[in-house]
Input
Amino acid sequence: MANVSLVGFGRIGRDLFRQTLGDTDINIVSISDTADKANLIYLLKYDSIYGKLDAEIEESETGIVVNGKENRQVDHLTRNPSGQMPTLELDNGNFVSEITVICDYLDEQQGYTDLMGKTSEARAETRMWTRRIDLQIVEPLTNGFRFSEGHDFFKDRLRLIPQAADDLKTLAQERITWLDEQIKDKEFICGDRFSLADIMFYRLFRFIFK
Output
């Protein structure tokens, strides 16, 4: 059975969840979304295209429970103690988490592509820009959101520092301005190749302007 995590529970995520509900080959182990839980439950239960979902759905402290299956179950916490996504099961039965690590591993399994870089120099460049974007922009901006607009959603999941929200957002904006200057003459962040750094930055802006 394939264990799958859904990052985002919009129209596509909910439709995928419906299609896999009861599937013996696919097990949805966790769902991540910043929307209000009650609203997510309603949208999952009543769909304008698929109609009413024939399932028992209720709210819990960790998210939503569908037919008795709760988010962040013990099995998933065993795979990834942080309870977050994504988590990849390796052929030897071990598990690795964190998106950069997983992408690096999968790219190496394919003999290396432009995603991470086909040469040692290109891979070093990708890791450098990915780390800069993650630590200097994604991290402060995400926490700035969690500590302010997302406070009610995350208050029972994470330790929040509301007084730091504005400063974190300012730091992220300063680094976005710096990044814009660094890449102004480039087609992509790593020059002429599309890489993980571009995906990470694009994902951030999809989140901001969602």
